[in-house]
Design a protein that fits this description.
Strand order of the largest sheet of chain A: 1-2
Oligomer: heterodimer
Shape of chain B: globular
Largest sheet of chain B: none
Strand content of chain A: under 5%
Structural class of chain A: mainly alpha
Radius of gyration of chain B: 19 Å
Number of strands of chain B: 0
Number of strands of chain A: 2
Radius of gyration of chain A: 24 Å
CATH architecture of chain B: Orthogonal Bundle
Number of domains of chain B: 1
Order of helices and strands of chain B: HHHHHHHHHHHHHH
Shape of chain A: globular
CATH topology of chain B: ABC transporter involved in vitamin B12 uptake, BtuC
Chain lengths: 369, 307
């Protein structure tokens, strides 16, 4: 008897939902084994990673603070990923969103207008879209690979932000630290839960997730994007313009990342700094996949990924583990997910030593004279 | 003047060499029809493992070998995912980079303030005393010589050997190669592992020769630039090395522009290599036929022998 991997007649819908859970379970298991190996009690590690960070209201607020940018970006990216448009430049689009929205806050520093904050969010969104329109334009006009262009622009965007806070936008009374002035109240997102840092950006993120759901489920464009991703030639035959899909996919990702950027600087950070994101733009790629490129899945996946960030910080404080383990587990989680996804399209079958069909035909020939 | 020129040439070669290794490795991987976007992660893990072993044992060469092994091990993860588990190559490559960035930061924590003496240049007797070409061709570090040898070996392998022909055939049409009995998956595994080993070697060059120290995220996008180089070179080894030195030159340029007293913000100069990468990608991809003719036909597509 041996095992054989064979194609399923139809992709398994059940496996598509189970596979992220399996991946999370296996990641957890790996973490427990690793913590035992480095001499930490697995229960202590589990407590430090998953319970301690969220055992009070403040912790739950932090969960939302970190989940907000992740779900925002992931919902935007997923729209492109569904059509096989690989925008991996969210980190840079986030930075440009922070620059554009934050620039507005510094420009109208004296203003206390109620329109300042909405204008900043719009500016952030437009900034992210502008940055993602570069790979979109180069891809549609010159056929340039959007993966490499969007990734290269991450480095450029972060360098521009660094230049701005080191020189022209530096706080004049900030002892030469590379940071801008603190945003005024009129330019900051209000706290929505007393005693925490949870800010209105979380509500914006939830709204964008809802919007993403409408786009994916209810709109014709969303449907077309999915067809392009699943069967390019069928989409071409139906007359869907590939170029439109590239633009929509990249602009959705860039706009969402831009909003995430301005929400970060107008929310928990409160000013422009050389670094405004601990890799949200990359982690959101994992969130999008673990969430099955579906807005509801992404909502849950972003909470999980947020917990992974918080867990890393808490493990550093409680167990002295370096916070770099967060990055390791992010990668491991995606590995397991991709491996488990095999079983959506394939299944493992036990195969008898002699195939039954061969045995049957052999018996037949013996009986007939 | 001569000294300045020699300095610029040597610095350019040094900045280009990690890209030569990583891009040549990725070229072989892509020729087999597999797109591994995890070069950045493999380079980083190679760099940190090589540096750690060299710092602990005092043997630079043991460090180099470790770096290659570590890179190949990372590539094995990618291979298992994409070749055995049929995962999407783009997603698996991104996962490998994210994992590699995290893992290298974790491993490297204890080594961030360690100093090493890097590999020293080998002066070839007599030849190295010639003006200009002496110091720039005959007094290089051993890994740079290795990069020339590897370029020659890879060019020969791809275009003059039967095994190279088979590799290219698999990249063009895995179905046909499979139907006449070649083990497509096994050969793709070898190509992926080779790519990982080379990326590790590129990382080792950075951490053991070029800087030589370990800094978190020290590759600074060189893995991604290597991927762009393969496209820029239209999948030809000799052009990879030219492209790599071109990028090396751009990297060095930013330092010299500052030296010449031209007042441009440092951050904008630092973004030059990334902008240059985009520009050359646009120039080379502009003509869709160049890419279509030269890229391996099956690149990025999963292949299941039984289906």
């Amino acid at each position: 008897m041996r095992f054989k991997i064979e194609a399923r007649p139809q992709p398994s819908a059940r496996m598509a939902y189970l596979s992220p859970l399996i991946a999370v379970g296996l990641t957890l298991f790996t973490g427990l084994i690793l913590s035992t190996l480095v001499g930490t009690n697995p229960l202590d590690a589990f407590y430090a990673f998953f319970i301690a960070p969220i055992d009070d209201w403040y912790g739950l607020g932090e969960l939302g603070v970190k989940a907000a940018p992740l779900m925002l970006i992931a919902v935007g990216l997923a729209i492109g990923f569904r059509a096989n448009i690989w925008n991996i430049g969210a980190e840079g689009q986030l930075a440009v969103g922070a620059i554009c929205g934050g620039g507005l806050a510094l420009w109208f520093y004296e203003s206390s207008s109620v329109f300042l904050l909405p204008a900043m969010i719009v500016a952030g969104c437009i900034g992210g879209m502008l940055w993602s329109s570069i790979p979109a334009f180069l891809r549609t006009r010159f056929n340039t690979n959007e993966i490499l262009v969007s990734l290269m622009l991450n480095y450029v965007a972060v360098l521009i932000l660094s230049y701005l806070v080191h020189d022209p936008w530096r706080d004049p009374s900030g002892f030469n630290f590379p940071e801008s002035r603190l945003f005024t109240d009129a330019a900051s997102l209000p706290i929505i839960l007393d005693g925490t840092r949870l800010h209105a950006g979380f509500i914006i993120a939830l709204l964008v997730v809802a919007l993403g759901w409408v786009f994916v489920r209810k709109s014709f464009v969303g449907y077309k994007m999915q067809v392009v991703g699943m069967a390019d030639s069928a989409a071409l035959y139906a007359g869907f313009r590939r170029k439109h899909m590239v633009w929509i996919g990249l602009l959705a990702g860039g706009g969402a990342a831009g909003i995430a950027g301005i929400s970060e600087v107008a929310g928990p950070i409160g000013q422009l700094l050389p670094s405004v994101s601990p890799g949200y733009g990359y982690a959101a790629i994992i969130v999008a996949f673990v969430g099955r490129l579906h807005p509801v899945g992404i909502l849950f996946a972003s909470l999980l990924m947020s917990l992974l960030y918080l867990g890393g910080e808490s493990a550093q404080m409680l167990l002295g583990l370096p916070s770099a383990v967060t990055g390791v587990f992010q990668g491991v989680l995606l590995f397991f997910l991709l491996a488990a996804d095999l079983f959506i399209n394939y299944r493992i079958r036990r195969e008898p030593a002699v195939s039954p069909i061969v045995a049957a035909t052999a018996a037949d020939t013996e009986v007939t004279p | 003047m001569n000294d300045v020129l020699v300095g610029i040439i040597l610095a350019t070669l040094g900045a280009g060499t990690p890209l030569v290794f990583a891009a040549l490795g990725e070229l072989i991987t892509e020729k087999s029809g597999v797109l591994n976007l995890g070069v950045e992660g493999m380079m980083l893990v190679g760099a940190v493992c090589g540096f750690a072993v060299a710092a602990d044992t005092g043997s630079l060469w043991l460090g180099v070998v470790t770096a290659m092994t570590a890179g190949a091990f990372m590539a094995l993860l990618f291979g298992v995912l994409t070749l055995t588990f049929q995962a999407n190559q783009v997603a698996a490559g991104l996962a490998l980079t994210i994992f590699g960035v995290g893992l290298s930061a974790y491993i490297g924590l204890e080594y961030t303030s360690v100093a090493l003496t890097g590999l020293q240049a080998v002066h070839i007797p007599l030849l190295s005393s010639m003006p200009l070409i002496g110091p720039t061709i005959f007094s290089l570090d051993p890994l740079m010589y290795l990069s020339f040898v590897l370029l020659a070996a890879i060019s020969y392998f791809l275009y003059r050997s039967k095994a190279g022909l088979l590799l290219r055939a698999i990249g063009e049409s895995p179905r046909s190669a499979h139907s006449i009995g070649y083990p497509v998956i096994r050969i793709r595994y070898l190509a992926v592992l080779f790519g990982g080993g080379m990326a590790g070697l590129g990382g080792a060059y950075l951490a053991l020769v070029y800087t030589p120290l370990w800094v978190e995220g020290m590759t600074a996008g060189r893995g991604w630039i290597s991927l762009a180089l393969v496209v820029f070179a239209t999948w030809r080894p000799a052009r990879v090395i030219l492209g790599a030195y071109l990028f090396g030159g751009v990297t060095i340029l930013q330092l010299h522009v500052q030296g010449l007293g031209i007042d441009l913000p440092a951050q904008l100069l630092s973004s030059l290599p990334y902008i240059a990468t985009i520009v050359v990608l646009v120039l080379i991809s502009r003509d869709i036929n160049t890419i279509r003719l030269n890229s391996p036909a099956s690149i990025g597509k999963t292949f299941h022998p039984g289906a």
